[in-house]
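yo, Sensor domain-containing phosphodiesterase is done. seq:
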Amino acid sequence: MSDLIQRRFMSMFDTAVEGLWIMTPDRQVAFFNHTFYQQFPFNPEGASLSDWTDLIHPDDRHLFKDNVDKQLNFSDGDKKVLSQYRVRKKDGSYCWIEALGAMKRDDQGEYMVGNHRDITSQKKLESSIRRLAFSDKVSGLPNRDQLKIDLQTRKSDVTLLHIHLKRIQSYINQFGELVIQEVIDRTIQCLDIFQPFNSKFYRSSTETFTVVLYSPIPEQQLAELCQKFIHMFSKHADQNGALYIDGVCIGAYPCKDLLQDPDEVINWAAQTSEYAYRNEESQWTICNDEIQKKVKRYFYIERKLKSAIKNDEISVRFQPIINAKTRELVSFEALARWDKSKIGEIYPDEFIPVAERKGLISDLGKKVLTQASGFIAYYNKIRNSDIKVNVNVSVLQLLDGTFPDQALEIVRGEGATTNSVVLELTESVLLEDKCQAMNQLRQLQSFGFQLAMDDFGSGHSSVTGFFKLPFQQLKIDRELVNDSMKEAEPYAYLEFLTMLCSIRGIGVTIEGIETEEMMERFIQMDVSSFQGYLIAKPLTLESAMEYRGYGISHNDNVCSIEQLVIPNIA
Ligand code: C2E
Ligand code: MG
Ligand code: MG
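structure:
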């Protein structure tokens, strides 16, 4: 190539948008393209590698030097090394440079060639896409994806707090996102109490804020912080009227396993928070070993109840109710048990609320009524008697218009009669639409069912409300019974109530009789019947068949249990 052509060829680089460079093994660099390099505060003529290195951002310099050393060690000419770093410009700002370099060899020896490209706008775009992808646009806080990344790269034990603002989504649906901006701002203000514990805040879903505490914190202090947060939050809500949420609950999960998967850590905190919401009065729970077992149990029930009902895993126990004067058996109360579960026996207080919430109570109720009716038919046939069985009915079942007809069909289908079945309803029936509840009760009564008010005195007891409804039996709640053993006023109240019931021909049953002393006390009150652990705990079908009464031996039986063929109903 002639000198002229070579000069003209070189001048072409001055118009290129990228910088080009050649470096010899003694690290002398020739920078081509003045238009590109004039933005940097150095003289490209006769510059060395260290002049360029001095302009590189201190945070990126180390990596840059490593890359150069790596490159110089390559003898393979095809191997290219790409690196990205920040370089200081004349105005003091930094731009992002992408450098691509390769080792070459000719008859004069080895050298390195490469180019520099300004990728600042590409980096800005990447970072704004990243911001959009990893942050919540309403609060500006990092989102769940960022939380997962941070948990994945954690270097120490952490505590996760899952803060659930209840039903906020419903308010957003009604009024739009803007309405909840105030709630979000106030929540962030309240989160400030976690600042001293090396914390980071996230809005991990529409209804959830997550706090990660990186400093260790004793359980007692954590409990105090949760309490304080809820207190501050409620105070804000009170002061500001409508804060567009229905409350707040917190699940705290201290994670001591660095290898635990981020999704699992997040789920534990979330499940603890839901458990707190449904089961704890305090609105917050810390997931220690004991709570972890309860949370597992709670979610097992949530997941498996539907199939348990379908697959007949729910059976019935029969708790005797005896005549207060003769102590003879008058009835059994049918109590549901989930006893074929993988986590052992589960009690109704755990699964009935779940069944009600998940719309399964009707199916569950039918199974219990079927087993109870089958038992009545079987018992009466074998014992040649006229036994009654009390069956609990949720108010949700009662309000289903088809319930009376279905109940009638089940009882008849099992060969029992409706007047052997006492349907127990709780006081919540008094709170329901009076007209609808009354119509259903009247229809059940017209079919021959007997009706009992269960757990009277445990909630919003209304004596006048009760006497307006067609009940034949009043069952007094265990707590009220216990109180009346200790104090004169509840005892006097029960005495008066029993008298009113006796005038109206309504039988009074005392629940929760656990001692002889209790029994004696209520015999004096002239109540009709007793139920409680002193008399008998809920019995299996086989034991119930043997039971005759309190202090009455089953040797008086017409035939022994061995002679009975037990039907497959429990
Ligand atoms: P409940 O209807 O008031 O039934 C009495 C509960 O008190 C039973 O608990 C029984 O085991 C317990 N109990 C009886 N005597 C004593 C005693 O002397 N001391 C103590 N501490 N407890 C006693 P269980 O079986 O756990 O049932 C709890 C509740 O679950 C029932 O209260 C009832 O409201 C509900 N339930 C049970 N089975 C069903 C069902 O099939 N359907 C519906 N809807 N609810 C049911
Ligand atoms: Mg009951
Ligand atoms: Mg009861």
